[in-house]
Amino acid sequence: MARLAGTPVFDPAGDQIGRVRDVVVGLRIGRRPNVHGFVVEVQPRRRVFLPITRVRRIEAGSVVFTGKLNMRRFEQRVTETLVIGEMLDLAVHLGEQPMTVYDVAMEEVTPSTWQITKVALYKGRRREPRIVDWGEVTGFDTLQRDQGAAGLIAAFESLRAADMASALHDLPSKRRIEIARALNDTRLADVLEELPPDDQIGILGTLDPERAADVLEEMGPDDAADLLHDLPDEQAARLLALMEPGEAAPVRRLLTYPETSAGGVMTSEPVILPPTATVAEALAHIRQQDLSPAIACQVYVTRPPTETPTGTYLGVSHFQRLLREPPSTLLGRVLDPSIDPIKPEFTLHEVTYYLANYNLVAAPVVDELGRLVGAVTVDDVLDHILPEDWRERPDRDD
């Protein structure tokens, strides 16, 4: 059942409507649990319930259902258990032997009636599963202080950071913190960037200060600055002091700007090259996988140095223009003269108007000395103008 995480869900017409995020079951004393249905995530990041009675086929890489899907947000009942979110990594017993749940299997026992029939267990550090019948295992109904996280992380491994953040947000607080603390620094940083501020603060507060500083170093400077803005001043100052000086410097600069200004929401690490660089070099830079589409859409050209704050800002080269030019062309010859930079003190309203008026997804931010200090992207703006609870996915009839 762990393999179902992220599986596409298709309606009777063959259109994909979402992805499986979990499986809902009802535990029963002395009997196999019944499968109630799937938690399906549909856009925009809303979790709904798909009854198992509506499921017609479960195949490798797809779940197909019939009928209509109720779009009301899924709410877990007290009598229900989530397989992926709550069962994986449980400490249970096979007879007198302590074991850990690696996975569980479900089977259609009668038409449209599915039950959990098998459990895959492992012991110790050697993750070689042993598959047994459900009835041979005890301990699923026991509240545990430290459940572990390896199995759930493996189930979520293929998810994008935003999807994993959504999955974590819907887990119980204790379980969410267990998973977050078990992630490596880079993955946790990516997930934190996608979580609501309350979740960010809650998770960061459970880490020891040295690890919290390491995670902040892995975050984009703008996201790290936003998170530090939400922390008490004393805690933020302590974490900044623990960060490597080179990593902390751009974050400190961003913290000097008002939070709702262009300087406060910009990224300080756009793609920057000198005018003597070639189109081929520019394309190689924006091809980097870790760049977001908004950052990779254009290259900013400045005099050396090319790290913010840079030398004199010269202009911007758009991705589409770069594709039309010979690879040996110098960037200084393909600048867009129509794009004027914005100032760090611009308000969010002014930035929004600027991007909308000129149909841009990013804009250069230049200080009073003519130096490029960063770039504001449309996703930076959206993060700040959307309601704080936009990730909560309220019901449409609210």
TrEMBL record:
Descriptive protein name: Magnesium transporter
Single GO MF annotation: magnesium ion transmembrane transporter activity
CC per GO annotation: membrane
Domain CBS: from-to ranges: 335-392
Keywords attached to this entry: CBS domain
Species, as recorded: Nonomuraea terrae
Record-linked Pfam families: CBS, MgtE_N, SH3_actinomycetes
SMART domains tied to this protein: MgtE_N (SM00924)
Gene3D superfamilies linked: CBS-domain, MgtE N-terminal domain-like
Claim: Metal-binding is one of the keywords in the record: no
